[in-house]
Amino acid sequence: MKKLLQSLFVLLFVAVSAMAQERTISGTVTAQEDGLPLPGVSVKIKGTQIATSTAGNGKFTIRAGSNAVLVFTFIGYLPKEVTAGANAVNVSLVADNQQLNEVVVTAMGQLRTKNSLPYAAQQVKGDELTQTRTANAASALSGKVSGLQIIQGNAIGGSTNVVIRGNKSLLGNNQALFVVDGVPVDNSTNNSADQKKGRGGYDYGNAAADINPDDIESVNVLKGAAASALYGSRGANGVVMITTKSRKQGGMGITVNTGLSIGSIDKKTFPKYQQEYGAGYSKPYESGDGFLLIDVLGNGVKEKVVPTGEDASFGAKFDPNLLVYQWDAFDPLSPNYHKKTPWVAAANGPASFYETAISNSNSIMLDGSTDKGTIKIGYSRNDERGTLPNSRVLKNIVNFGGTYKITDRLTASATANFSKIDGKGRYGSGYSGLNVNQNFRQWYQTNVDIQDQKSAYFRENKNVTWNWADPSKPSGLVAKYTDNYYWTRYQNYENDTRTRIFGNASVNYKATDWLNILGRVTLDTYSEHQEERVAVGSNGAASYSRQDRTFNETNYDLIANFDKNLSKDFNLKALLGTNIRKSELNGIYNTTNGGLIVPNLYSISNSVGALAAPIENFEPKEVDGYFGGVTLGYREFLTFDATFRRDRSSTLPVSNNTYNYYSLAGSWLFSKHINADWLSSGKLRINHATVGNDAPWGKTLSVYKVENQFGSTPVVSYPKILGNPLLKPETTISTEYGLDMSFLKGRVGFDATYYTTKTKDQIVPVAVSPATGFNSIYLNAGTIQNKGVELSAYGTPIKTNDFNWTINVNWTKNQSKVLELFGDSKNLQIESFNSGVSLNATLGQPYGTIQGKTYLFNDQGQKIVNEDGYYDQTTSTSNVIGNINPDWIGGIYNKFRYKNLTFGFLIDIRKGGDVWSLDQFYATYTGISPTTVGLNDLGNPVRNPVTNDSKSGGLIYPGVTADGKVNTKRVAYNADSPRLPVSDYSYDAGYIKLREASLGYSLPKSMIKNWGPVKGVDLSVYGRNLWIIHKNLPDADPEENLSSGNVQGFQSGAYPTTRIIGFNAKLSF
Amino acid sequence: MLSLAACKKDISSLNTDTKNPPVVPAGPLFSFATKAYVDAMTSASVNVNVFRFTVSHWAMTTYQDEARYDFTTRTIPQIWFRTMYTDVLRNLNNSAELVAADPLLAAGVKANQLAILDIMQVATYSTLVNTFGNIPYSEGLDKGNLFPKYDDAKTVSLDLIKRLGNDITKLNAASDGFSATADIINKGSVAKWIKFANTLRMQQGLILADVDDATARAAVQASDAGAISSAAENSIFNYLTGAPSQNPLFVDIVTEARGDYVVAEDLMNKLLALSDPRLPQYAAKNSVGVYVGGVVGSGNTLSIISEPAPKVYAADAPSVVMDYVETEFYRAEAVERGYAVAGSAEGHYKNAITASILFWGGTAEEAAAYLAQPAVAYATATGTWKEKIGTQKWIALYSRPFNGWTEMRRLDFPKITPPASATSAYPTRFTYPSNEQQLNGTNYAAAAAAIGGDKQTTKLFWDKF
């Protein structure tokens, strides 16, 4: 009380003494770069507590004594002191371009200058994300931030994998948390488990795709646990903080973007086919030379027919003079009906199935501000049609944001983001007939002309396949394995909708100069509806299924912020808060059973068989937490941070359901002590954090499963995955050391970080021997360590008034190692794929080893060939044949500006890491790959029979026999030859890509000044995925994956890269 | 503060699954287990049950891995092992725990239910032990032991026979067993379970005959009177016409409509040579109306090779779990081995073949004519009793391929020539699941060493010849 009285007295004294000689000073504050007024600039009389801030039009008035010194400060601008000689003071502030003084948004929305940050955080400006108009904001970050690995597939609207500093969790979520204006935005990928391991299904995308890229002001990536500890366990994988746009200057503005892009497949990422042999599996068939003999015309004459049921190209050698009946000879509407056609390779191969992708995007953003508040309304529409026929993803997003100053102390604000994504005909994925690419890459006949298949489908919209099961009889004129590709795309398509709202409402009360209290409610809710269908007439049972899912999450935050200079030297910032998070996932899946009664009716009731029980899930969850943090600054060069958070989660057993996080961090801006022209800034930083994590929902208990009834018999099964009532929270410990330096007035600089993280007591479903009676049990088991180096460097080699060249380089090397698994076990299978290949966490190895059979080697490391002349293989499938982790990743961004013309390009590099290709495995097995033809060592076609003379086909596998002698046995090369071990199909996944390039031109101000309200016109031409400069994986994009998530490094039916070239016009009013 | 107030509330209830049950009655678990067992034994999916190729009854049109004895590309041993332990045994075991703990169940009913559950467990363990050799047994099915050791195969087999003895003693037809609804195999008939158990004991006993004649003899002689004595006493799993209760073969062949399977020439040629009346029941004619078999392990063109007859894979095609046919073959064999079993070898042989022909839809006249052929008649058919019984049993065990494989390994007839491109010699066992090496490595290594190497050509302990 006494202190308070003293303060009041001091205030009164100052006020009274000021009154004696004061006058009113007024003026306008503008930004130097464009001359526009700056609202919200703090104007303070030096040496006093008297302060005000500028209004929406940049104007201020303040009462001050003569010769008072006014101090103008504003985030992002250099402070300025002006002695108020006259009554009117107009000031223009210079933007602060030195990156170390950048202001960044950190955890819980706190603004910090970069030179006081004791941890790694890297900012990307919104326009760097939108310059090539990527629909998914997450994928636009690729190559732009060190420590961040982005993997994006090539399917339309597909999900983007966003992992910061390596996988920390064995089987849990490793995706970064997205926070938009303080709203944690769910970034789940709700693809099925089967889809993720390549067993078919669709990639429905990740939920962060609902963020409007045009609304992004900046993205700040908080990489380590110390930076994100305030977010609790969800921040353990790093945080992508997104700040949306809001008007800083007074008045009103309108920005319109309109653009169009076209895309086509990069042929380097699509198979090439051998052109010498057609359908068959190396059999003579009935004709003796590779054809069936059928009385096609009913005249009693048996004639040669292509073995249409064989989905391989190990058949008869092409011969343009040989006329045979092909699949179209059995299509009554075909011009070739009952006609023989020449036996030749297809003129139009599978690449001709791909169409030109067309996408147009339009957005309009209206914003305005007055001295009372700001408002923003945006609408964006992105209509994307993919390279596969009948594919489309349409996105409509409406944004709203507003703030209103109710009193000088009380500000209310709200944001809302409403989005609707409609997908139709997303690409089928993985090893499934619904993925036409599985067939193109694995099970194709090189004689099948895709354009003929197209005509055949469109003549009557029927499933006229090349893959007739048995052309000798009418009942055999059905698809044996493969439907007509156009039938697949136009009849067996999926459709989906996701409707979402996220946003917040908050009230900020400025209690005193040094105390702010924020109350906030955030909401994120979406509903998804997905329908999948297989039409009557397709291979396999017709079906229809629907998945309906709603998710909502509400956060209640109450946060108090302190910011006070304790003395001349010490500044204290502190925060104290509480957060209650409630979320609920509610879903139901229904499917028909045994076929559809009425064709083309897609409803659950149209099921031939008795309906299986729907699969329902209801997963409510609550996490309550409170947190606090202090930041102590000393003379602007030493900063010390400490944070604490305690969470209580509903997914853990009551006895063990609270867990704590701590972080300690410090930084030293040592350049303050060095007076050298060349050194602009230098900072050392160090931090340490321990964060906890809870369990996935519902893992403390085991439940039975009510199965489909058998007739009238109820059937129930014992749980295959056991829950565990003794689970405890898992823990991640991280340490980080960093050095940030800039030189030559900030023209050159770098941020370097070395980090280690260790995640232990992981909550994982540990796979156990099935002899226990179940497949896995939830346990706290396993430790993963990640160590790495991140480097971001920037420079401006040339800087003149007219010409500018800037370079940004990001480089990341992360090394993970599995330190511990459950008990004595040495391996934890993450996923098992087709053909005995699996993805694993193996003790002592990096996370994500690819395992399978491999060659047998002798002591000298030579491959052993068995007595039949083929390679011996291991019987065990647990040999490490690859590893999904890149050695390093990096990005180089160059930007050139000449007057109003800008040109920029981004090279994205991934060095090392492996991918296993089921596509290549089968392309060689079925003989479609060019590697399956050609001449042998004798100069004869390798596919010719082995005759043991100079005319012999076949080949001699390099290697030694069991007794060490060089193998000399010549063996046949055909469809019956034993396959090479799966290890042969593990490829280096590295690449160098020209990821982005853009050329922009802003119309000169002089030209548009007479265009009425138009303030700016920016035109750009851009390209994405233009050129894969280098890769080692043949015929495919090494980055292509099935879905985001932990299961990576496997390709089946991989989609080619889509090269995109677009044009965009941006108009500002 | 808000959260401090909230802390008083118990939030852990949110973690309770409100859509799936934490407790269930015993019957539906028993139904699940029996269905899972019979599904696996019946299926022809190359991911589940590959024995139709191993016994050369069927061949594949296109994809030949499994027909060439490559069982590890699709991890068949792993699926087989997993199905038996987690789908079948765990559910039987848990059902028994619930029955034993049920205070309201009448003592007689409880005893019968426990015995029936035990018989099904014995049947399943016998399938495992005769597939792999040493298996986790005494330490299996225990969530407190995640690394169960493997027990010696013979010790397991002897214990299984002992358990059947106990079960037969406990079963009492005067009390009820499971309800007719829950008991899909025997529709609630305890009497039929007694028959089932006796035939199973006879089967397991004879498997040991070459290595432990005394045990085999005792088991067979104790079972003869109680074993199945007519087709009416067969244990049949009746599938239903509607999905999802259809015969797995219907799903594999009709629903999937892939045209994968044809009848193998080994079986086809035998049926043709013997003018077997079961031929039209087993196989369909090819597209030009002729019976032609396909080559196991080699590509076969659908249009020129016979597919299985529609009756075999009808949606409601019954699946035989235990029947009079095999019991009569066991009795014939027992007589030949000099065990004290009623009747003559020839009589039992005739009964077995006649019952098989009748079961598949043939007539008594057809059976008589068939048996009258010198190549079939017991007195004149070629070879030793092992060859005569082995050959006819092989034909009769059509669509019971696992049993067929066991009998072929045991009786060593008929002789099958492995496909030219086979990846190994004739498989006499499955290798252990590859993931056992990683999940239960120490015990796996001990078991592999104990049986003489984890190879699919290692002979099981009873496979002396």
Describe this structure in words.
- The complex is a heterodimer of chains A (1069) and B (465).
- Chain A has nine helices and 58 strands.
- By secondary structure, chain A is mostly beta strands.
- Chain A has three domains: 18-96, Immunoglobulin-like (Sandwich), CATH 2.60.40.1120; 207-265 and 357-432 and 487-846 and 885-913 and 989-1068, Maltoporin, Chain A (Beta Barrel); 277-344 and 444-481, no CATH class.
- The two termini of chain A are 54 Å apart.
- Chain B has a single domain, classed as Serine Threonine Protein Phosphatase 5, Tetratricopeptide repeat.
- In chain B, 47% of the residues lie in helices and 4% in strands.
- Chain B contains 18 helices and six strands.
- In chain B, the strands form three sheets. In chain B, strands 1-5 form a two-stranded antiparallel sheet. A two-stranded antiparallel ribbon of chain B has the order 2-3. A two-stranded antiparallel sheet of chain B has the order 4-6.
- In chain B, α7 (190-207) runs parallel beside α12 (324-336).
- Chain B is globular and about 80 Å long.
- The interface between A and B is large, with 104 and 92 residues.
**Percent of sequence in beta strands of chain A:** over 45%
N to C succession of SSEs of chain B: HHHEHHEEHHHEHEHHEHHHHHHH
Q: What is the CATH C level class of the largest domain in chain A, in words?
A: Mainly Beta
CATH topology-level name of the largest domain in chain A: Maltoporin, Chain A
The CATH superfamily of the largest domain in chain A is known as TonB-dependent receptor, beta-barrel domain
Task: Round the Cα radius of gyration of chain B to an integer and report it.
Answer: 23 Å
Going by helix content, strand content and strand pairing, the class of chain A is mainly beta
Protein name (chain B): SusD-like starch-binding protein associating with outer membrane
InterPro entries (chain B): SusD-like_2 (IPR041662), TPR-like_helical_dom_sf (IPR011990)
Organism (chain B): Pedobacter cryoconitis
Pfam families (chain A): CarbopepD_reg_2, Plug, TonB_dep_Rec_b-barrel
